[in-house]
Specification:
This protein has a two-stranded parallel ribbon with strand order 1-2. It has helices at 12-30, 38-45, 49-52, 54-77, 79-99, 103-131, 141-165, 170-173, 175-189, 203-226, 231-253, 267-298, 302-308, 311-330, 332-350, 359-383, 393-419, 432-451, 478-481, and strands at 193-194, 484-485. Helices cover 72% and strands 1% of the residues.
Length: 487
């Protein structure tokens, strides 16, 4: 006689951490891994480099377009269903990118990747934060830092290595086995949560917010390289700004808005979102402008300049250990404010004449930027959602990612505006404009320290009776597998 069928049981918390990390590593890596291969891609397809740049344009714009609707989709159809659907689309699109016979196919598949990636980040973080209550989220520092810090930093060197020794097709093929394994694990291990949004879908908000973010991302991302007076950039910036204003006005008046902007009125979450935007502006700005300053001061190559900022990723990895140990003892405000002030001082030091000329000074300062700014960013990301209930978590994550994405784009645009007509030549350009732009990033981070004063003093405390993992009486192990459905 055969025994009872035993189905392997995967703990939902373990599954959500593994699936989230795999998906976000793919997403983070793909945001930078293609850059070194664009010249090779253009040559293989017999197209100019400007045409190959549309590969990245499509990814970034589609990424921004997916953000506004992510929270609503997760609430309406379930976070597990939407996340795994987006991850499946991302994986299939990766395979199509690798097999692309022409540039047009590659651009379309890359856009699908970006759209899926725009859904993955907020919905994935919603899954993660719903699995861990506020007082346990400090454990997530080590999880959050890998895809957000290490993978984007590894993208350019890994992309160059694969392109040189294999082919650019492998930039996309590497996603396929990882994505397939993550989808399979998520199918069996994740629990469903359907919040059930109130009212009908906000069609007007969708048609205002979605193109607004796409147009602004295009303008801010490509204005510095293509020129702010280029018609496509100018029109995108103007039309995107008008649509964004209209979208905000509509969202605050709508009964069931696509984006719950009222969440920003919450002291903790609103401050955390503002901090996310400001710190992203400072970090992305300095990572954009400092390699140019490094080349201007030393006449270094682009590869040397890119490697000079890599210690920042190492510092960020260490920051996860710092947050895990100090946040419970010091609390969000006392940990974040000093970290931002030190980060601003380090940024300013990079702009002092003579510093950029010393390669080891640069590496040490970049490591400190990753350590102290990473400590502040992780603290904000973990503690900023303490006051957000499960019902609003999907919307809150979507808003948070939108603010952070636009903040990073604005930081790069601000630095590009300060640099103006300055450019790097082999004879070494005047580093003055680049140093001024670094000072701007230092001012942005210092402003974040003022905002951080609004964060709570105390770290989240566990409830008196923390028995959330215990199944209800009489339901045994099956309770841990049951979907959480509301509405």
């Amino acid at each position: 006689m055969s025994g009872p069928l035993i189905r392997p049981r995967i703990r939902p918390r373990v599954a959500v951490v593994l699936v989230y990390t795999a998906a976000m590593c793919m997403n983070g890596l793909d945001s930078t891994i293609v850059n070194p291969a664009l010249y090779t891609i253009a040559g293989d397809f017999g197209r100019p480099l400007s045409a190959a740049n549309t590969v990245e344009t499509a990814f970034l714009v589609a990424l921004a377009v997916g953000l506004p609707v992510a929270g609503w989709l997760g609430d309406r159809f379930g976070t597990k269903r939407v996340f795994l659907g987006a991850l499946t689309a991302f994986t299939i699109a990766s395979a199509v990118c690798g097999l692309a016979p022409d540039l047009n196919t590659l651009v379309v598949a890359r856009a699908v990747q970006g759209l899926a990636g725009g859904l993955l980040t907020p919905v994935g973080m919603t899954l993660l934060f719903r699995a861990f209550p506020p007082h346990e989220r400090m454990k997530l520092a080590k999880v959050l830092i890998v895809p957000t810090a290490l993978m984007p930093a590894l993208g350019p060197p890994l992309g160059g290595l694969l392109t040189e020794h294999l082919s650019w097709h492998w930039l996309f093929f590497v996603n396929v086995p990882i994505g397939a394994a993550a989808v399979l694990l998520g199918f069996f291990g994740l629990r469903e949560h359907v919040e059930g949004p109130e009212g009908k879908f906000d069609t007007v908000g969708f048609w205002l917010a979605t193109p607004a973010l796409g147009l602004l991302t295009y303008a801010l991302g490509f204005g510095p390289s293509q020129g702010w007076t280029r018609p496509a950039v100018t029109v995108s910036a103007a039309l995107g700004s008008v649509l964004l204003v209209a979208a905000v006005l509509h969202q605050v008046r709508a009964k069931t808005p696509l984006l719950k902007l009222r969440l920003l009125a919450d002291r903790v979450y609103g401050s955390a979102s503002a901090l996310a935007g400001v710190t992203a502006a400072g970090l992305m700005g300095v990572l954009f402008v400092f390699p140019l300053l490094y080349q201007a001061s030393l006449g270094a190559s682009a590869l040397d300049a890119g490697l000079s900022v890599f210690p920042e990723a190492v510092g960020l990895m260490l920051a996860s250990q710092v947050v895990d140990r100090l946040l419970p003892k010091l609390g969000p405000r006392l940990l974040t404010v000093p970290a931002l002030l030190v980060a601003a001082a380090v940024f300013a030091t990079l702009a002092i004449p003579g510093v950029a000329e010393n390669a080891w000074s640069v590496r040490g300062l970049m490591f400190l930027i990753g350590l102290v700014l990473g400590t502040a960013v992780l603290t904000v990301q973990i503690s900023g959602f303490e006051s957000i209930g499960p019902a609003d978590m999907g919307q809150a994550m979507g808003l948070f990612q939108i603010v952070r994405t636009l903040g990073g784009a604005l930081g790069i645009a601000a630095c590009a505006a300060v640099i103006g007509g300055g450019h790097v030549t082999e004879a070494a350009a005047d580093p003055g404009p680049y140093r001024t732009a670094v000072w701007v990033t230092a001012a942005l981070v210092a402003a974040g320290a003022v905002i951080a004063l609004r964060l709570p003093r105390e770290a989240p405390q566990p409830p008196p009776f923390d028995d959330e993992d215990a199944p209800p009486p009489g339901e045994g192990l099956a309770a841990d597998e049951a979907p959480a459905v509301k509405g």
